[in-house]
Design a protein that fits this description.
- By secondary structure, the chain is mainly alpha-helical.
- It has one domain.
- The protein contains 13 helices and no strands.
- Helix 1 packs across helix 4, helix 5 runs antiparallel to helix 13 and helix 7 packs antiparallel against helix 8.
- The two termini are 14 Å apart.
- 44% of the residues are buried.
């Protein structure tokens, strides 16, 4: 049932992708803002309380409905699984930004590409070169594919899969919502959300990196992972981006050029201390790199689905 739930959810999302401003996400964001306003008194333990309130308020009802559906009818549980996976996945949530950037770069319209990237990551990209824009788009797409797809897959395979998928997506959301905004960066409130998501994403991030290596250039991906992941101040992002860049032969997060590496609102800037390190192998990002990134993500998705299918057969047998 797990394999079919993910398959049907992916098919539905291809036909009807969720908008960024869909009502479900909007209400969740509103709830998180309210809880932050209620609980934030400037201390770390207040952030811990707020995290458990938000995550528990969404995860526990999801688990209860799942158990109820299982007792009533297995088909009802299947429908609930599909709905939750559809809501927690985001395979095509930001694809229009990526496609627009790719079309603009191929047409030589660098200004439009900068504008699309700025809209995507909510940062000023007006000073970026075409190569920087391509690199930023590739980095953003790899991180988004992990956190919106592969991380969800991993936790959906756990017991009470729908609740675990909701827990993962909410943890990822709170780690951004309570840490990334400028007015929240120096507060202790969001530190618990950031730390707990690090551990929640510890295994999925490495599995995504392995998948990128398997379906891409394995040797370069593993070499970049081992030697260049530490250049990012965020360890998990460094693992995913170094392995992904090595898999498609593109230098990502280039610290030597001091380029404006705008991965996304989720990502941390590259460590300045690493500026003297040897350059990562691979070529400069260009419009063709975007197509390579798309191919890498699709191949990794097919690998996950194949492994899940084999696991399902093993369970049935």
């Amino acid at each position: 049932m797990t394999f079919l739930s993910i398959l049907f959810a992916l098919l539905i999302e291809q036909l009807k992708p969720l908008r960024v401003d869909n009502p479900v996400y909007t209400q969740v964001q509103f709830f998180a803002v309210k809880v932050e306003a209620w609980c934030n008194a400037g201390k770390a333990h207040h952030g811990r309380t707020g995290w458990f309130i938000v995550v528990g308020a969404l995860t526990i009802p999801t688990a209860l409905v799942y158990w109820l559906c299982l007792h009533l009818n297995p088909f009802a549980a299947f429908i609930w699984n599909v709905l939750i996976v559809y809501l927690t996945l985001g395979f095509r949530r930001y694809s229009h930004y990526f496609t627009s950037i790719q079309v603009a770069l191929n047409a030589g319209d660098d200004d439009a590409a900068r504008k699309y990237l700025s809209d995507w990551i909510n940062k000023d990209c007006s000073s970026m070169s075409a190569s920087d824009v391509a690199r930023g788009a590739v980095e953003r797409s790899l991180i988004a594919s992990h956190r919106n797809v592969f991380g969800v897959f991993f936790w959906f395979l756990m017991p009470v899969g729908p609740a675990c998928a909701v827990m993962y997506r909410m943890s990822e959301f709170l780690s951004r919502e309570w840490c990334e905004p400028e007015h929240m960066q120096n507060e202790e409130f969001g530190q618990f959300a950031k730390k707990v998501f690090y551990w929640i994403d510890w295994v999925p991030a490495r599995l995504t990196a392995v998948a990128f290596a398997v379906v891409g250039n394995f040797e370069d991906a593993i070499y970049s992972w081992r030697n260049y992941a530490s250049r990012w101040s965020d360890e998990l992002l460094g693992i995913i981006l170094s392995a992904g860049g090595g898999a498609i032969g593109v230098r990502l997060g280039e610290p030597e050029t001091k380029a404006l590496v705008v991965l996304n609102a989720d990502a941390s800037a590259v460590d300045v201390d690493s500026l003297e390190l040897e350059s990562q192998p691979g070529m400069e990002a260009n419009p063709r790199s975007l197509q390579s990134a798309v191919g890498l993500v699709w191949r990794a998705l097919l690998l996950w689905m194949l492994l899940l299918l084999l696991l399902s057969f093993a369970v049935w047998l």
